[in-house]
UniProtKB/TrEMBL annotation:
Residues 140-202 form the IPT/TIG domain. This is IPT/TIG domain-containing protein. Keywords: Signal. InterPro entries: Galactose-bd-like_sf (IPR008979), Ig-like_fold (IPR013783), Ig_E-set (IPR014756), IPT_dom (IPR002909). Residues 1-19 form the signal peptide.
């Protein structure tokens, strides 16, 4: 959030510097340069740069278009697809725009088109795909397993398990098959395509539930057996292909025992979970039966990611049980749970 604040502050300073005193158009529509707002390779510590000149546009990223005649901007498009823009971030000499992730890039015209009240400008610039989008992969695989990674924009992909590069067995734009190398615990999956690198947020070995309960789970159950409980719900998932569907009665509970011998607490800083409700609601989370440190999980009718630091649930030295209690106060809810596990420090 702090980085976002600094970036927005720098953009506002930039736009102030680029503005004409009279607030009108210079009368000449021209592009003199393009900069990428932020360049930050997630695999290299401390390389973050802002406002970096470029001659390549990657869909799904934010750019600063410099020139003149932009004050009355009506539309801006890349390879024929319009990208939305915030007029607050437009002056006569600069446009800050987030390029639509769905911008076409294959066998296209490599064209930026700017339409204003004083005319239309077509500018030639290379348009390339977004960075990879990782939708799902087995989070707790074993060395030697052949796994499938699903997502988007896997164009000439390079796959890394931590710092270990693995040659794909096969790949398409949406699926990669690879064999898991040794020594992956507490490391992250990353994929690099022709545009850049994406690092999965989940570290290997950290999942309590990932399409199924993992070996970290010791036991599980319900306070009220009448509640519906499907641990392989295949109609909706945040990560992978399955989730837990819990048809929770009002103030009823679901508990998951943890095999503490399989969790090195010194490696983790908290618990992660994705929740989705049939109705917007809340659920209490209680760790190790410590009701004095109950944490309220607020979720919506689409997937909501929640990260709970250990400090918010009593700073447990070890975790033996995690309990969820429906707390919407309207008689119960159907709650989906997915990508449930620990967060690496």
């Amino acid at each position: 959030m702090l980085l976002k604040f600094y970036f927005l502050a720098s953009i506002l300073i930039l736009l102030s510097a680029c503005s004409n005193d009279d607030g009108g158009s210079s009368g000449t529509l021209a592009v003199t340069g393009i900069s990428k707002s932020v360049i930050d390779d997630p695999l290299i510590e401390g390389d973050r740069q802002v406002d970096v000149p470029t001659d390549v546009i990657n869909a799904g990223n934010t750019y600063i278009i410099r020139g003149s005649g932009f004050a009355t901007l009506k539309s801006i498009s890349f390879n024929g697809l319009e990208s939305t823009f915030n007029p607050t971030f437009v002056t006569d000499n600069a446009i800050v725009v987030s390029v639509d992730q769905k911008t076409p890039y294959y066998n296209e015209m490599d064209e930026l088109k700017i339409v204003t009240n004083i005319g239309t400008l077509v500018y030639n610039v290379k348009i390339r795909p977004p960075f990879p989008n990782i939708n799902g992969f087995p989070i707790n695989p074993n060395p030697g397993d052949i796994i499938t990674i699903t997502g988007e924009y896997f164009l000439r992909p390079v796959v890394n398990f931590g710092t270990t590069t693995v040659e794909p067995i096969s790949s398409t734009l949406t699926e990669i098959k690879v064999q898991v190398p040794n020594d992956i615990q507490y490391k992250n999956l990353s994929i690099t395509n022709v545009s850049g690198t994406t690092v999965a947020s989940q570290s290997f070995g950290s999942a309590i539930y990932d399409d199924a309960y993992t070996s970290i789970k010791a036991y599980d159950g319900l306070w009220n057996a009448a509640d519906g409980y499907n641990v392989a719900y295949d109609k909706d998932a945040k990560q992978g292909t399955k989730s837990i569907q819990w048809k929770a009665g009002g103030w009823n509970g679901l508990y998951v025992g943890i095999d503490k011998t399989k969790v090195d607490m010194t490696k983790y800083k908290g618990i992660r979970i994705n929740l989705k409700g049939e109705k917007t609601g809340t659920a209490n989370m209680i760790v190790n039966g410590n009701y004095s440190a109950t944490f309220s999980l607020a979720f919506k009718t689409d997937w909501t990611y929640i990260e709970i630091p250990f400090s918010a649930v009593g700073n447990p030295a070890e975790i033996t049980e995690i309990t969820f209690q429906e707390s919407g106060n309207f008689g119960g809810n159907t709650i989906l749970i997915d990508d449930f596990g620990f967060v690496l420090k």
